[in-house]
Amino acid sequence: MPDWERVVSHRLAQLALDERERQEVIAELAAHLEETYEGLRRDGLPERDAVRHALSQVADWSDLQRKIYLAKENTMNSRTSRLWAPSFVTLAASVITLVAFTFLGLQPGPLGSRPGNQMRREHEIWWAHLVGGITRGPHMVNEYTVWLMALPLIGALGAGLSRRAGGTLREIFISGVFPAMAWLAIVLVVLSFAASLGQGLQAVTAPVSPVGLILLVVVIPGVCLLLGVLAYHAAAKLGTKSVA
Amino acid sequence: MVGSGIKRGTAELAILSVLETGELHGYEIARRIEQQTRGKLRFTLASLYPLLYRMEKRGWVRGTWQLSPTKRRRRCYRLTSAGKKKLSPLRAEWSELFHALRQLAKVADA
User: Fold this and answer.
1) Does A89 lie in the same domain as A149?
2) CATH number reported for the structural domain that contains residue B68 in this entry
3) Which ipTM did the prediction report?
4) What is the pTM (predicted TM-score) of this model?
5) Which residue is closest to B52 within chain A, CA to CA?
């Protein structure tokens, strides 16, 4: 007979309740599975079939985990921990890493080279400085490109926090890509504001067009974040599929 | 077999009804409901526990750990006074609904 507590514990590994409550849920579900299994054995089913039949009561353990979490937790608090907290952690992490890389002095230039001060003067507008690695041509590395490489980790972090709190698939994805959504809102506000003042958008977004700005500040980082979320989600699914 | 939407709606009534007779643990709740409805209502582990926990949060049932005669720890649920109060209007609501549906069926058959 399987160790049912171990089976359930493994499958509800991400259940974000306090430890005592989590252990109680595991013990209760394990007891249910054990009784189902024993009933099936008494009915004459071979051990292997009885185990399979008992486990077939739960088609999706992640979904059950989420439902139990929702049932046990305060609704408003759980929404905060499932969506808003991971989203703002992701946003904060993305801003902090960007600022950190900027201060670390990863200057734009060909891969492996150290650009001079002249290049620095060309980047007086902060964001233009950040995106210089891409707008100045291929094979360039700067804080923007290094930051892009860090974004999948940040996306995975947001997804992980949301999933651990029992987030739905939608909440997990939103938590992971939230920074891109926030930047989109900021870019749209800035562009609208510039347009309403009658200033040319090009003056605000130089050296790229407004579409280019959205691409560099929203779409590309968003894709990087999404890659991290997808990777985390795939890894988490694989983890819950393996049978103890 | 009853459709899943109706089952969801009747699930709370079913649980409250079987607990009216006394304390039961989760597996026994599921088994009693299946027996008493002749298999029309079936609870799996996945459908039963989230519902039980929600009902517990609402204060309709209370679970406590007990030792079974075979020395196994089982969490047994019993109706609270709030659950008992809930049961009566819930029964009336469903009875009214089924009565209305029967009327509709008669009209359709006629």
Assistant:
1) yes
2) 1.10.10.10
3) 0.85
4) 0.52
5) A71
